[in-house]
Design goal:
The chain contains 7 helices and 4 strands, in the order ββαββαααααα. By secondary structure, the protein is mainly alpha-helical. The two termini are 30 Å apart. About 4% of the residues have low confidence.
């Protein structure tokens, strides 16, 4: 394993199957296993860009020796990390009126794509979940039960986190 601090982040290159020691409360981004130096270089360029927005990435909750990332999704974070700040600000405004609880509800729905499974994950009754969906629609004008509107809300929540206005991915 090789580690160094670069661009305000600790970078580690490890072999396949190796374990990186992590501290609770730290943020970790792990790229896919790479076969070539070119793939590793492409990942490094993307991760360098991602370092500009630390709020996009989860802090680690170490549970039984394993990292828990909750509802965080790498693909969305990667897309947001490549957006210009003006676009992020525009997206973030869309969900500025949402509480962290409402944002977590949208993220959970995005993870499960099923209202029943999302309500179960959040430990709320399905009627409570439906009420939250209605409140989210009222505050944003977007219905999270509709696929493309859910996708837009997810991007907006990640943009708000990237702007540092929402600390939704911090370990609790």
């Amino acid at each position: 394993m090789v580690s160094t601090e670069l661009y305000g982040a600790e970078w580690s290159v490890v072999g396949a199957g190796a374990y990186v020691k992590r501290r609770a409360g730290s943020r970790l981004i792990a790229s896919q296993e790479t076969e070539t130096i070119a793939q590793l270089e492409a990942d490094a360029v993307m991760l360098r860009r991602a370092c500009l927005y630390p709020g996009l990435f989860p802090t680690l909750a170490i549970e039984q020796g394993r990292a828990s990332r909750g509802v965080w999704q790498w693909g969305i974070a990667e897309a947001i990390a490549h957006m210009p700040p003006r676009s992020l600000a525009r997206l973030a405004r869309r969900v500025a009126e949402l509480s962290p609880e409402h944002c977590r509800t949208v993220l959970t729905l995005g993870q499960h794509s099923s209202a029943h499974a999302a309500a179960k994950e959040l430990y709320v009754h399905r009627n409570t979940f439906t009420q939250r969906m209605d409140q989210i629609q009222l505050r944003t004008g977007a219905d999270p039960r509709v696929g493309d509107e859910l996708a837009e809300l997810l991007l907006s929540i990640y943009a708000r986190a990237a702007m540092g206005d929402l600390h939704i991915f911090d370990a609790s």
